[in-house]
Amino acid sequence: xxxxxxxxxxxxxxxxAQLAKLGEQxxxxxxxxxxxxxxxxxxxxxSIPTLSRLESGDPAVGMGIYAMALWLMGRSQxxxxxxxxxxxxxxxEMDIRSxxxxxxxxxxxxxxxxxxxxx
Length: 119
What we know:
Blueprint: H1 3-9, H2 13-32, H3 37-44, H4 48-55, H5 63-72, H6 89-101, H7 110-118
Helix pairs in contact: 3-4
C-alpha cells in the first residue's frame, strides 16, 4: 500500500466532510452555469467519472483538478488564501508561546553595577 493510499484512508472526519462540501459547491457552480457533465469535464480536461469523483469530494482527485475547477468558476485566487501565513493559527500560537517563554533580562541594580565596577 502506498503512502498516498494510506493517508487518504486515514483522513480526519472533518477533512472528509469539507471535501464533500467542496465537491457539492463545485457541482452547484456547474449546474448554475447550466453546464453538462460532459462539457464541464471537457473544459477541466478530465473524464466524466473523474468529474463525478470531484463533485463527490473524492480526496484522490488531484489538487490541480480542484484548482482548475475553481479557476473555471472564477475563484482560483482563493487558493492562495488557503495557506496564508497570516491565517495560520497553529504557527501564530507557537510564536506567542515561544515569545512568552523567552526570559526577559531583569535590569541590573545600581548596587550590582557598583560591585562589578570594583572587580
